[in-house]
């Protein structure tokens, strides 16, 4: 699969290209080098009383499965600003504050290409339950008990994040 990502060198157009490592693509003719590094993403565990907010994915990968709200960080954006932007896009809401918890590697299969991501997880603790609207990549929002059936979660990184979050809360 990895060789189908780039068959021709984007610099010289020749076909003498190879993947040196999982992340390094090199042209043997012109010595062009491309690094396919992990994409940065951020998600939020939003807690209110004894519940956390989960979203239902509107699109693949994982359409119809559960996820945490969040998404990819844009160029020149820090994780906090990117997460706040994603929450506004997906839920129509900006968080009052957030704190970093941990990160997990993940894979994101999109249109036949596997992207490696680094998913940064933040905690948002609320004193009031906000009015949220499912927008963008979110089909629905639901408040759930903190004990969640992980087989319904779309991504391994989110499963890992929820498990680590639960272990710190007990």
The biggest sheet amounts to: 7 strands, mixed
Shape call: elongated
- Low-confidence segments, ≥5 residues, pLDDT <50? none
Helix amount:
10-25%
Number of distinct helices = 2
The whole-angstrom Rg is: 19 Å
Mean pLDDT: 93
Structural class: alpha+beta
How many strands in all? 10
Strand-residue fraction? 35-45%
Termini separation comes to 42 Å
Order of SSEs, N→C? EEEEEEEHEEEH
Would you mind describing this structure in some detail?
The chain is of the alpha+beta class and 170 residues long. Helix content is 16%, strand content 39%. The protein has 2 helices and 10 strands. The chain has helices at 79-91, 156-169, and strands at residues 17-19, 24-27, 33-35, 39-48, 51-57, 66-67, 70-72, 99-110, 113-126, 138-145. The strands form 2 sheets. Strands 4, 5, 6, 7, 8, 9 and 10 form a 7-stranded mixed β-sheet that branches. The mean pLDDT is 93.
